Amino acid sequence: MLARVRAYLSADRADAIIIPSNDPHFGEYVQKHFCIRAMLSGFDGSAGTLVLTLSEAALWTDSRYFIQAEAQLKGSGIDLMKIGVEGVPDIVSWLNARFDDGCRILLDGALISAAEYASYNKKLNARVVGIADPFDEILSEREPLYFETVILDPESFSGLSVAAKREMVFSGDPADLRICRILTRCDDIMWLCNIRGSDIDYNPVALSYALVFSDKILLFACKEAFEEAALEYLASQQVEILPYASFYDVCGEMASDESIHFLSPASSTSMRLESIFADSRHFGYESRSEGEVAYRKSIKNPVELEGFCKANLLDGIAWCRILKYIEDNIETGTLNEYSIAQQLIEYRGESPDYRGESFEPIVAFNANAASAHYSANSDEEAAVVTAQGFLLMDTGAQYPFGTTDTTRTIPLSELTPDQIADYTAVLKGMIQLSMASFIKGTTGYQLDILARQPLLSLGRLFFHGTGHGIGHYLCVHEGPQNIRMDRDSGVALLPGMVQSNEPAIYIEGEYGIRTENVLVVEPFTENEFGTFYRFETLTLVPIATSCIDREQLGDECAQWLNNYHRRVYEKIAPHLNDEEAIWLKNKCRPI
Amino acid sequence: MLARVRAYLSADRADAIIIPSNDPHFGEYVQKHFCIRAMLSGFDGSAGTLVLTLSEAALWTDSRYFIQAEAQLKGSGIDLMKIGVEGVPDIVSWLNARFDDGCRILLDGALISAAEYASYNKKLNARVVGIADPFDEILSEREPLYFETVILDPESFSGLSVAAKREMVFSGDPADLRICRILTRCDDIMWLCNIRGSDIDYNPVALSYALVFSDKILLFACKEAFEEAALEYLASQQVEILPYASFYDVCGEMASDESIHFLSPASSTSMRLESIFADSRHFGYESRSEGEVAYRKSIKNPVELEGFCKANLLDGIAWCRILKYIEDNIETGTLNEYSIAQQLIEYRGESPDYRGESFEPIVAFNANAASAHYSANSDEEAAVVTAQGFLLMDTGAQYPFGTTDTTRTIPLSELTPDQIADYTAVLKGMIQLSMASFIKGTTGYQLDILARQPLLSLGRLFFHGTGHGIGHYLCVHEGPQNIRMDRDSGVALLPGMVQSNEPAIYIEGEYGIRTENVLVVEPFTENEFGTFYRFETLTLVPIATSCIDREQLGDECAQWLNNYHRRVYEKIAPHLNDEEAIWLKNKCRPI
Question: What DSSP letter does each residue of A540-579 carry, written as one string?
């Protein structure tokens, strides 16, 4: 296959091609059709960039994938470039060492943001040329695009009509301007159009683009895949469906219409899209970096929030069963990480509303949990789980009325003082953030330290974000707000925003601990000092108390935990059988 | 006087003049010589801008000064413009309503930053013309500039020679570049040159400018005012003293020297200074907004830190005496806010090292404390202090080895539940920030919430910063780092930075509570997770415990407070007489 790509380069007189990992929709997961880098290199981790020249090939990936990439690239003739390792050149240096300003480097312009493209062009000696996806011709074995059934997301779940959402999205714009919002992110489009698909793993979205006006929407998707109810509803809401493949052409036709102001989110405007509007003075970025639609989507309405509660209730029932199942079977030697994940899926499947997992389930035993994204995909890969140390489980599900995401770390035996201190610090951080009150205008960046302080006081820290937004029967990772320490999203937390809260600690080669609830921002009080918000917890899954250092946790956090457990028991117990209910009562005992 | 300024405007064919409040050194306090706005308007608050046209005059000030300005402007013919009040135009709108692009508006170019000047020129229809200070000619009654004695700040207090400081400041620059750092802030110059003056209230600085090279310093100051020891020392450290008034001329002469790269901090580069270098391609802003000297100055060396400890010990002794004095005399009816401040100054003065207050002392009884910067200047102005409610005292002192800043709120009677809850929340916030641990790279903006959380959980908040940097026998407010919620300084807290910690609550018409300690950042631990820092407390003044809600405070904070009080007692008691020591022992009892 590499030879065929090189033949293509030769025919085009190009010197190299850069092949990234994403698709033109800038989502987290990608259809196989777009996994060209994996296809060509054999390395199928989620992150990596392949660069191919006429005589060489190299693949850049980050530390999560060093071992996997090394194994999968063996014998491919592709050099592994370990990002961040001293002495390993980055893509720009590597290319500059080989190509000067007479050279041409190709890159699919739909797969790179305009900003990244500009940065490449500034730093590279050679010229970077944006091309349209060439691989349909080159790689006959390429997986075809597929478009699964698109269903209606009824207003009884979404809470608002498409017309009402459109009105909301355009409400802040000057009345005398005809604005067209360009959407390339599938989840934005699903939310706005009250539809759901299943073209991508874990994310219930249909591959699509949209051009959104205040009075109509042009939806670029596979019309044949839409169920009748969806077609009827969309027609009633001034949504016109055009062929998925015609998106760029229609943009090209409209670009010259000077009566329209085009707006696109900076973070999801591809170089290809921007080049279409290069001559238009009527094109600009949305003032919010992820755009107005993503912003409005992040603020859940009361109907959506009711759905989140229902989703967490159903998920809480399944979680209680899996936690009891593990406890009942831990001594048998028959449990492994994969079988536990499958068993949880089975429990979830007992609800007719279950629509699948919201991400690849993480069930990780002791040292395996020290990698934050470890996941075993089969019984063979999976570690046997015995009564020793910790088991970390981070899984979530899709329901038509909400998405869940929960992490629990389960003590399986007596623990060391360090393990107890770490477990308690992680939990205390999770609780301190849950208890936070804050004034209107506060961002997650300002609250983040509340979740980290107990770990920091032990001289320990985790390096991922503390919290991400969560979609409503959509992507489990959703912007634009977040709770992080490394950068400020600049987006204030507002009532209705649904947010994960997941402090953690990872001790390499030993164990990982993470405790995650999902929170929603709600109004607290309004007075002469201003408008105050706080969090309410949506998750309803018991938290192990046997390994808590009560003194380290402190009274305030203990009281929060006892109140939480009282609520978990009250909500979940009525849905359990007697034996399960007794088990849960014990788990929810005050400490 | 207004008539004479108008005559000057007429003669110059100008339409208006803008007169700000600051001096050319961009400090917090200003010599009378520069108080032109106060002189012309009669309004002598610290913040205000006067605009004078041929027929009108208006003065803009903020809400702190509405009442005072109203009184002082009465009958002056100057309109009061209340900043932030609905319907009140800002300076730009007011000027644009009067003057179009044929008009000229004058402004002393040394009193406005280049950035502010650019903003004026962009928004104003009329042309803004930068002029040199014209008031020596116009206002014969103007106070003359004065230059008080400049003394040596010996290395036994400063910890480093001027040469060593110079080397530190230039250590990050490319070796092949001849760099000249331009300093206009007097405290930067005092620190760098190991000298102190007393040209400005509360800030022990001499009026000065400097041009700093890696191998020498040109110091623009009044040489006649320097004591012999200072002159000798400066000569030995390659510091050449030139006349204060020659600064701009020397800059002008040097500007054309293309072998020199000039660097000036963005925040203290005046329009006048920048215009001198307008034609030079070798002029730019320092990469740190307050400049390299201010940054190095903020990181105190071990000798400076030892001095801070000594200063806080001396100040702690005086504080204990004033607290006991208030307690002993509260029932007599003889105490007032002013007399208490004077008594504290007297106690401080018992130490031969006392060099004066570090800012205008704040002693505020009940409702008076609800304005954060209230200060009574005489017995007549001051409220009588009786055994009722709270007394807030925020005062600090200058010692040759350090500067102090302490706030205590003293309960004078039984308090209401709200007062107890507020007092406890403020204290808890102060303690939570004191206990913080954090990873290298963390800014005050990220820690701020720790000090506010207990208040936020009551639906209350204070709106000033939580902490400011503190100079070493220099300005009590010092950058570039801070702890605030409204904006991120972008400056990470580093070991050696000295920082106030002063959460508060203000209930209008009722009371104000503020508790302030001074902290220094120190190393905590270094391990596989990174480099961790924490705070140590420098202040040694007991904190009232009688009005604490022990349950609300929590065990962790109570333990911190008990440890703190043990240390206060151990350090201070040996310097008190028996009666005082017994009193202190009681105040430091564990709760």
Answer: ------TT--HHHH-HHHHHHHHHHHHHHHHHHGGGS-HH
For residue A523, list chain B residues with Cβ-Cβ distance below 8 A.
Answer: none
Residue A436 and residue B453: Cβ atoms within 8 Å? yes
Using the Cα atoms of residue B8, residue B11, residue B17 and residue B21 in order, give the sign of their dihedral: negative
Would you call B456 and A439 a contact, using CB atoms and an 8 Å cutoff? yes
CB–CB of A358/A405 below 8 Å? yes
Look up the ipTM and state it.
0.92
B450 near A CB under 8 A? yes
Contacts of A448 in chain B (CB under 8 A): 446
- Residues of chain B found within 8 Å of residue A554, distances taken between Cβ atoms: 554-556
Nearest by CB to B460, from A457, A461, A529: name it: A529
Quickly count: other Cβ atoms within 10 Å of residue A368's Cβ: 20
Residues B120 and B100: their CA atoms lie apart, in Å, by: 14
Give residues with Cβ within 8 angstroms of A308, minimum separation 6.
A300, A401, A402, A403, A472, A498, A518, A520, A538
B-chain residue closest to A531, CA distance: B459
Q: Which residues of A touch B461 (CB under 8 A)?
A: 439, 529-530, 532
* pLDDT value of residue B376: 84
Is residue A278 pLDDT above 90, yes or no? no
Domain map (residue ranges) of chain A:
2-138, 151-298, 302-587
Contact of B305 with B328, CB cutoff 8 Å: no
Cβ–Cβ of A449/B446 closer than 8 Å? yes
Length of chain A: 591
Q: In this model, does residue A174 exceed pLDDT 80?
A: yes
- Among chain A residues, the shortest Cα distance to B439 is held by A456
Phi-psi region of B509 (alpha: psi -120 to 50; beta: other; left: phi over 0): left
**φ and ψ at residue A544, rounded to 5 degrees:** -60, 130
Give, in order, the Cα–Cα distances in Å from B398 to each of B31, B50, B200.
19, 33, 13
A369-416: pLDDT as tens digits: 987 678 888 888 899 999 999 999 999 999 999 999 999 999 999 999
Spans of chain B, pLDDT less than 70: 372
Q: Which CATH architecture has domain B302-331+414-587?
A: Alpha-Beta Complex (3.90)
Domain A2-138 has CATH 3.40.350.10: yes
Q: Which residue of A has its CA nearest to B553?
A: A556
A151-298: CATH homologous superfamily?
Creatinase/prolidase N-terminal domain (3.40.350.10)
- Residue of B480, B474, B477, B405 whose CA lies nearest to B444: B480
- Tell me which amino acid residue A542 is: P
Q: In the sheet where B217-221 sits, what is the strand order?
A: B239-243, B217-221, B209-212, B178-183, B260-264, B283-285
d(CA A448, CA A568): 25
What is A302-587's CATH topology?
Answer: Creatine Amidinohydrolase (3.90.230)
Strand (E) or helix (H) holding B418: helix B417-434
**Nearest CB to B529; choose among A457, A459, A530:** A459
> Number of A:B CB contacts under 8 A?
76
Asked if residue A400 lies in contact with residue A353, where contact means CB atoms within 8 angstroms, the answer is yes
pLDDT tens digits, one per residue of A180-191: 999 999 999 999
Q: How far is B447 from chain A (nearest CA, A)?
A: 7
Per-residue pLDDT, A375? 81
CB–CB of B148/B197 below 8 Å? yes
Cβ contact (<8 Å) for B524 and A445? no
pLDDT for res A280: 81
Inform me whether the pLDDT recorded for A542 exceeds 90: yes
Task: List, as one string, the DSSP characters of B291-360.
Answer: HHHHHHHHB--HHHHHHHHHHHHHHHHHHHHHHHHHHHHGGGT--BHHHHHHHHHHHHHTSTT---BSS-
Q: Is B461 on the interface with A (CB under 8 A)?
A: yes
